[in-house]
UniProtKB/TrEMBL annotation:
Domain Exostosin GT47, chain residue ranges per copy: 144-482
Sequence similarity: Belongs to the glycosyltransferase 47 family.
Pfam families (alphabetical): Exostosin_GT47 (PF03016)
Polar residues biased stretches: 1-12
PANTHER family according to UniProt: EXOSTOSIN HEPARAN SULFATE GLYCOSYLTRANSFERASE -RELATED (PTHR11062), XYLOGLUCAN GALACTOSYLTRANSFERASE MUR3 (PTHR11062:SF56)
Annotated GO CC locations: Golgi membrane
Organism: Solanum bulbocastanum
Region (Disordered): 1-22, 570-604
Protein name per UniProt: Exostosin GT47 domain-containing protein
Domain of life: Eukaryota
Composition skew (Basic and acidic residues), residue ranges: 570-584
Gene Ontology molecular functions: glycosyltransferase activity
TM annotation in the entry: 27-49
């Protein structure tokens, strides 16, 4: 039975008590009050409330995302966090153009906190085209839930045609041998017993484009339905493309394929959903080959990463920029590409049991034309020490210096491997050393710690030694003395940490799939998926981040999960740019890219 209100109950009682009597004045009064009550109630509802009615936000078509500033933190795949959180101004040209705030010195570092709008202004989550993809993770019976990748079916001019014309990929050598075996290069013999009997190839350090692309073909969660995709892969061989035209070609030729690709992508419906923010591609070269500062033919590289569409996509490169947020470092390829887990386990056990007679070693040549290089001091210290093994490389090139077996044999015989900057911040040698179970010694944080945040532990002292290049250059400290101060038990722990990281630092054979281990490809794909997933959730929740400074993107990558406040860091001097923002750092990086090519020429 429906319960009555106290008011209606008293009214009925009075009517029952008054039966048989004439109470017209009272009835008239009650009727008048009742009429007045209903009049006021209707007036309040239709006039007062009606004038302040809040309408639901209209549904927006997917294209409207191109007209928003999408601001997101980067993914934090365990145990690392790139943590790029963008505070951007949007310049519309049918896509997003990210412009970061300028860095000012002697100003308190910003606090980056999310700003979440109230529910009344949010768009209905069901109206977003990517909601179906987000919901796949809820299906516990689907092993690919939340992990699907959609691969664009690009015209062959963007990839396969380059392989057919492999002789054009390097001006100094026939690159075709390096594209053999799905990009691994020719198989190496094991005459000296340095390698395993299987899984070792003469892999070119810039072959990640084709290796990654072929690994993607074996990815277990590919889909032809882009609405299910956690991320979208663009199989453009960006590194191979620019390698064809770096020397002797004008900017029109160097930019042609990148502009063609962008035009093709922007006509696809998949692009329009998020303006390309869910797309990623791989370029097996350093970032400076894709960051030309002007349209002068004398400037280096192309401008792929400065194109508006290039800024929207995630680009995986073997060396990223510490001052930009749209590229991410992935390992250089080593010579080891196992087809089975057992091959990895066998190699790790072998590295644990090796006797290492050298305290430290160095493979490399001096850089007399670079006054900031410490390679000369390192070579001198190694020559003077009885505990150091040296493989000195020159422009003419010693055969042993460029022999994989000689290099790996030296690394396997040493406790520590010195890894100063190469022609740019990074070196393939660092990954070869760790593959050999040799503890790397870095002299600049951008050589590893702020580069490979998806693949290396944040606690760098657990697996490596850091000696500031400034201490070597100005204080002439003894590297041997510093390494000898590390207790033997600590050295053992560090070496075990390095050996345990080997699976995530190598690229498995693209023609097979490791059973339980995750290789460098798997780690990178997981990181991209996590990043895109966070971006989508931020869009749904209308979450934005204030005070983001793109020039400090290297520092955001060091923040712990949930940490938002930046502070002064001991590595600040390593990443300072000129106060007049004259792009001196970018120019020097471009010069380093040129030198890298010159030294590559000497190695052929």
């Amino acid at each position: 039975m429906r319960r009555r209100s106290p008011t209606s109950q008293s009214f009925d009682d009075s009517m029952e008590k008054g039966q048989g009597k004439n109470h017209h004045p009272r009835v008239c009064l009650l009727a008048s009050l009742s009429g007045l009550f209903w009049f006021l109630l209707l007036y309040f509802h239709f006039v007062i409330l009606g004038g302040n009615h809040v309408h639901d936000s209209p549904n927006l078509d997917p294209l409207s995302l191109n007209k928003q500033s999408i601001i997101t933190p980067q993914s934090n795949p365990n145990p690392l966090n790139r943590a790029t959180i963008r505070n951007a101004k949007v310049e519309m040209d049918n896509e997003l153009v990210v412009k970061s705030k300028p860095l000012e010195k002697n100003v308190q570092q910003p606090v980056v906190r999310p700003v979440i709008n109230d529910n009344s202004s949010r768009r209905d989550p069901e109206s977003y085209s990517f909601m179906r993809a987000l919901r796949t993770v809820e299906n516990k019976s689907d092993p690919c839930g939340g992990r699907y990748i959609y691969v664009h079916d690009l015209p062959p001019r963007f990839n396969e045609d380059m392989l057919k014309e492999c002789r054009t990929l390097s001006p100094w050598t026939n690159f075709c041998k390096f594209t053999a075996n799905a990009g691994l290069g020719p198989q190496m013999e094991n005459a000296e017993g340095v390698f395993s009997n299987t899984g070792w190839y003469a892999t070119n350090q810039f072959a990640v484009d084709v290796i990654f692309g072929n690994r993607m073909k074996q990815y277990e969660c590919l889909t032809n339905d882009s609405s299910l995709a956690a991320a979208i892969f663009v199989p453009f061989y960006a590194g191979f493309d620019i390698a064809r035209y770096l020397w002797g070609y004008n900017v029109t030729t160097r930019d042609a394929a990148s502009l063609d690709l962008v035009d093709w992508l922007q006509k696809r419906p998949e692009w329009n959903i998020m303006g390309g923010k869910d797309h990623f591609l791989v370029a097996g070269r350093i970032t400076w080959d894709f960051r030309r500062l002007s349209d002068s033919d004398s400037d280096w590289g192309n401008k792929l990463l400065f194109l508006p569409a290039g800024r929207n996509m995630s680009m995986l490169v073997v060396e990223s920029s510490p001052w930009n947020a749209n590229d991410f470092g992935i390992p250089y390829p080593t010579y080891f590409h196992p087809a089975k887990d057992a091959e990895v386990f066998t190699w790790q056990d072998r590295m644990r049991k090796l006797e290492r007679k050298w305290l430290f070693c160095f493979a490399g040549g001096p850089r007399p034309g670079n006054p900031k290089s410490i390679r000369g001091q390192i070579i001198d210290q190694c020559k003077e020490s009885k505990a150091c093994k040296l493989l000195k490389c020159g422009q003419s090139g010693e055969s042993k210096c460029h022999s994989p077996s000689s290099i790996m044999n030296m690394f396997q015989s040493s406790l520590f491997c010195l890894q100063p900057q190469g022609d740019s911040y990074t070196r393939r040698s660092a990954f070869d050393a760790m593959l050999a179970g040799c503890i790397p010694v870095f002299f600049h944080p951008a050589s590893a710690y702020t580069q490979y945040t998806w693949h290396l532990p944040k606690n760098y002292s657990a697996y490596s030694v850091f000696i500031s290049e400034n201490d070597v250059r100005k204080k002439n400290i003894s590297i041997e003395e510093m390494l000898n101060q590390i207790p033997p038990e600590k050295v053992k722990e560090m070496r075990e940490a390095v050996i345990s990281m080997i699976p995530r630092l190598i690229y498995a054979d693209p023609r097979s799939k490791l059973e339980t281990l995750k290789d460098a490809f798997d780690v990178a794909v997981d990181a991209v998926i996590n990043r895109v997933t966070r971006l989508r959730k931020d869009i749904i929740e209308d979450r934005k981040y204030d005070n983001y400074i793109e020039e400090l993107s290297w520092k955001y990558s060091l923040l712990d999960e949930g940490q938002t406040e930046l502070a002064a860091h001991e590595w600040d001097p390593f990443f300072e740019k000129p106060k007049d923002r004259s792009a001196e750092s970018d120019n020097s990086s471009a010069e380093a890219a040129k030198n890298s090519w010159k030294n590559e020429q000497g190695q052929q």
